Amino acid sequence: MSEGLERRLDRILPGGKGVWIPLDHGISQYPEKGLEDINNIITQLIDSQVDAIVVHKGVLSHQMKIRDWGNFVCHISASTIHGGNRSGEKVSVATAEECLSRGAIGVSGQINLGDDNEAEMIIEIGDLTTDAWALEMPVLGMVYPRGPNLIISDEDETKGIAHAARLAWEIGCDVVKVPWTGSIESFQKVTSAVPIPVLIAGGPKEISFNELLVIVEQSIQSGGSGVCIGRQVFGCNNPSSNVRALRAIVHDGMSAKDAMKFVEE
Fold first, then answer.
1. Is 115 part of the annotated catalytic residue set?
2. 189 given a catalytic annotation
3. How many domains are contained in the chain?
4. pLDDT digit string (tens) for 48-57?
5. Can you spell out the DSSP letters for 103-151?
6. Alpha-carbon distance 82 to 237, whole Å?
7. 204 pLDDT band (50/70/90 cuts)?
8. 30 near 36, Cβ under 8 Å?
9. C-alpha to C-alpha distance for 131 and 110, rounded to whole angstroms
10. Is beta strand 198-200 parallel, antiparallel or unpaired with respect to 226-228?
11. Out of 24, 51, 115, 174, which one is annotated catalytic?
């Protein structure tokens, strides 16, 4: 690993762990609760000591004009809910070089495993990891097994999530974001499948944040490296308190039960 890449990874994954907050949801659909005043939410997140914030390039450039903060990861994949039968296809809207020039420390891209256009997404993220490698920029792969063409064997208790992590690693990503598998035993199969940090997504929308904290604790016990969670943070009444709770588990090794004291109802 190059010195520049390693140094950047250490900044956004201190001690190999990270609390990352993605704010890329406004491209997919809008209005989005919590993102109406993105300047305010980003200020709260930075003050709460998140390790990285994932944004699209327009937001990134705007933020770099108003604040000196170097831990933005630029997401290059986009689609909207209006895309019909192609709404699950993520297309590239930026390059690694462009993201670096706009002020990003790393880049992020998405593949929806099993989508009709999976092959195109793999090509685009493969190109991203190639370009980012030359620039010594970390790459986060958001890989979700969610398409209509998924082939899941009866023996795969991860339901394709271990394969998603493996795809991200083998295609050159430095970090991967995947859904929670439902148990410590099954998620261990995900983290043991790759030598890169594994971050979990926010999980089902209908669960409470306290329920999510239990999942976060279990993911760490399974060898996970932290979280990349959006709506359960920016969409709540007090994002700062939720970040404190996540940091307590991910960075301080606190139990979910003890971390719940940070959460304000």
1. no
2. no
3. 1
4. 999 999 999 9
5. T-SEEEEEEEET-TTHHHHHHHHHHHHHHHHHHT--EEEEEEE-STT--
6. 29
7. low
8. no
9. 16
10. parallel
11. 24
Q: Is the pTM value of this prediction over 0.85? A: yes
Angle, helix 38-47 to helix 239-250, in steps of 10 degrees = 40
- What CATH number does the domain containing 175 carry? 3.20.20.70
The pLDDT confidence band at residue 3, using thresholds 50, 70 and 90, is confident
The boundaries of the domain holding residue 219 are 3-262
What percentage of the chain reaches a pLDDT higher than 90? 95
177 is catalytic: yes
CA separation for the pair 55, 165 (Å, rounded): 22
User: Token digits for 85?
Assistant: 């039968």
CA–CA separation, 120 and 136 (whole Å): 24
**Strand ranges for 39-126 from DSSP E:** 52-55, 72-75, 77-78, 91-92, 106-113
Q: Which of these is catalytic: 17, 57, 90, 144?
A: 144
Q: Is 34 helix (H, G, I), strand (E, B) or coil?
A: coil
Arithmetic mean of pLDDT, 232-254: 96
From the list 17, 57, 90, 177, the catalytic residue is 177
Residue 21: beta bridge partners? Answer: 53
Compute the distance between CA of residue 94 and CA of residue 72 in angstroms, rounded to an integer: 15
